[in-house]
Structure formats: C-alpha cells, structure tokens
Design brief:
It comes from Rhizobium skierniewicense. This protein has 299 residues and is mainly α. It has one domain: Orthogonal Bundle (Farnesyl Diphosphate Synthase). Helices cover 71% and strands 1% of the residues. The protein has 16 helices and 2 strands. It has a two-stranded antiparallel sheet. The longest helix has 28 residues. The two termini are 23 Å apart.
Length: 299
C-alpha cells in the first residue's frame, strides 16, 4: 500500500469513528446532546483535513505491535483536541480567521459563544474517549496517555505556545523564542502522537523516547513547511488565509533566516527523523515517507 493510500485509508477510518462519536445519540451517562452545539462540533471536526496526527498514532503503534483499535480511538481523541484548538484559534480574540479547510470557521458559521462551547466540548471529549473502556487498553496505559496528552495540550504545550504566539504580535521573539513557541504550539501534539504509539504498545522507555524524538523532528518540519507555505502559497490552495504572519509582524524562522535556509533545514530534519528509525529497518518505511510528506506538502 502506498503512503498516499494509507494516509487516505486511515483518515477515512478516523472520520468514520469521529462521526460515530459525534452522533446525535447520547452516550452513557449523557442526558442529551444540544443540537446546535453538536452541529458546531461536527463542523469543526468533520470538515476535511489530512488527519495527520491520528495517522501518526496509528502508524507508530503499528510499528511496535500496538493494538490497532485502541490506536484508532486514541487518534480520534487527539483529532478532537487538535480541532478544538483550531476552533478557538480562529476566534476574533485570537487569530480572527474566517476560513478553515476551505469552509467558514465555526464562529462564522454559528456564533462566537457556540464556537467557544464547541471547542470546550471537543477538548473534554478527547479525554472521555481515551479514558473510556471502549479504548481497549490496560488502565495504566490509558492513564499514561491521559497524562501525556494533558501535558502536551496545556500551559507547557499547545496552549502555552498559543499564548507565546499572541505575545509575538506585539514583540517579535528572537530565534530561540521562535523555536520554543513552535515546539509548544505546533510540536507538542505531534510529539504526543508519535509517543502515544509506544504507550499503546506498552513499549520500553527507550522506544518511547525514540519515537518522541522522531515526533520532535517532524513537528519542527511541519511548522517550518507551514511558514514557507504562508509566504508562497495562496488561500485557495491552503484552505485558509495566507500571509498572516508577515502582516502581523510575527517572527518566524523563515523570516529570520530566509526561504533557502528553510528548505535546507527541512531536508536536514527529514534526514534526522529517518535516522532515528534505522533500528526498525523496512518496517519504518511508512514513517520515513511521512517525514518527507510533512516537509514537502503543498497545503
């Protein structure tokens, strides 16, 4: 199976599960699901996307022999959390975006209050999914996943990175500050996605560290590619506004070092990520292709 086919197949499986999780039928211990809020959540999640983060959970777990059904559920949980962050980032008080994945952002299609509640609900649903008995893992592994995701999403991870990103609009950080910001805002969830595969498989700590390091490399590559696309692509291709960082005076590594440096650094990151997977031989081919895809993507 080619990388592209595998990416599409895993995305389809993830979306099918997300559709079930976001159905109108109340789950155990729920009284009801308000229709407007549910529709906003569905719009924020079921509106396309590559589903890269769930893909990484599924494929890193597969590499180490982890349970495929559990990996699918953890990937869906991570996608709920990722999409919550997008819904909130798009709000007028944050990035003030009207377009996401080629469609109106949640606060534009519904309203700001509903968008906030939709994001809140997706965030909490992520931990609901992981902690649920339907995620068929030993209790200690589910607890480890909950803790790791909480750290990746919170003040020392994604949310903290977003705070640094907002602060960067008034005072551009130096290169070290940009690296820290991006490792938190973008990199934290990608690192978790890769580390989660090792947790699901019950692997030893060295495996977990190795896959976390792989996630760090491709997380950096993802943001660097995003910075290049923000300069060179257009809204029709990206499905969202471009040129925002330059317009707001935000510092990026590409702005500080230049596009040629950015492309060279991307090649280095792909090589570094691939080297980390050497012990797995041919079994790691799909993750090596993933690193290339992250660096070379067009949207």
């Amino acid at each position: 199976m080619t990388f592209e086919t595998r990416l599409r197949d895993n995305a389809a499986r993830t979306e099918a599960l997300l559709g079930d999780l976001l159905s109108s039928n109340p789950r155990t211990d729920e009284i009801t699901r308000p229709e407007n809020l549910l529709n906003a959540m569905r719009h924020g999640v079921l509106n396309g996307g590559k589903r890269l983060r769930p893909f990484l959970v599924i494929e890193t777990a597969a590499l180490l022999g982890g349970d495929a059904t559990a990996a699918l559920h953890v990937g869906a949980a991570l996608e709920c959390l990722h999409c919550y962050s997008l819904v909130h980032d798009d709000l007028p008080a944050m990035d003030n975006d009207d377009l996401r994945r080629g469609q109106p952002t949640v606060h534009r299609k519904f309203d700001e209050a509903t968008a906030i509640l939709a994001g809140d609900s997706l965030l909490t649903l992520a931990f609901d999914i992981i902690a649920s008995p339907e995620t068929t893992l030993p209790d200690d592994r589910r607890a480890t996943l909950v803790l790791a995701l909480a750290k990746a999403a919170g003040i020392g991870g994604m949310a903290g990175g977003q705070a640094l990103d907002l602060a960067a609009e008034s005072q551009a950080p130096d290169e070290g500050g940009v690296i820290t910001l991006q490792a938190m805002k973008t990199g934290a969830l990608i690192r978790f996605a890769c580390e989660a595969g090792a947790i699901i498989a019950g692997s030893i700590s060295t495996e977990r560290t190795r896959l976390r390091s792989y996630g760090e490399k491709i997380g950096l590559a993802f943001q660097l590619a995003d910075d290049l696309l923000d300069l060179t692509s257009d809204a029709a291709t990206m499905g969202k506004a471009t040129g925002k960082d330059a317009a707001r005076g935000k510092g990026t590594l590409v702005a500080l070092r230049g596009s040629d440096w950015g492309r060279s650094r991307l090649r280095e990151l792909v090589s570094e990520a691939s080297d980390l997977l050497t012990p797995y031989g041919k079994r790691a081919d799909i993750l090596i292709e993933t690193a290339r895809f992250v660096a070379e993507r067009k949207n």
